[in-house]
Amino acid sequence: QVQLVESGGGLVQAGGSLRLSCAASGSRFGISSMGWYRQAPGNQRELVATITSGGSTNYVDSVKGRFTISRDNAKNTVYLQMNSLKPEDTAVYYCNVRPFGDMHYWGKGTLVTVSS
Question: Do 24 and 98 form a contact (C-beta atoms < 8 A)?
Fold first, then answer.
């Protein structure tokens, strides 16, 4: 069983920055893909960014150039650096990881609120 611990959410003014972290533990064979999703009130959960074990990244168009996903494989931790935040980035952000040979796991979510 993999456990995920997220941190870094909070309240920030538009134009500000936040850094989210998600540490995974309990994986026997390492982590394949890691990523961040978000869900705003009344909306479906959407992919924000993903990163493979080899470092390949993928972003939703709305965050390209503003958000950066990275990972520390030794710590099984994924980060999301969010710059130039906008009110429309307000959402609950969820960490998602898929260990090798295992299912996807979700974090409990961390709230990011961007005030105008």
Answer: no
**What count of other Cβ atoms lies within 10 Å of the Cβ of residue 80?**
27
Per residue, what are the HEC states of the chain?
A: CCEEEEECCEEEECCCCEEEEEEEECCCCCEEEEEEEEECCCCCCEEEEEECCCCCEEECHHHCCCEEEEEECCCCEEEEEECCCCHHHCEEEEEEEEECCCCCEECCCEEEEEEC
CA–CA dist 57, 15 (Å, integer): 23
What is d(CA 46, CA 84) in angstroms, rounded to the nearest whole number? 19
- Among residues 85, 110, 74, the alpha carbon closest in space to that of 17 is found at 85
* pLDDT tens, per residue, the chain with 116 residues: 899 999 999 999 999 999 999 999 988 888 899 999 999 999 999 999 999 999 999 999 999 999 999 999 999 999 999 999 999 999 999 999 999 888 899 999 999 999 99
What are 9's two structure tokens? 């959410």
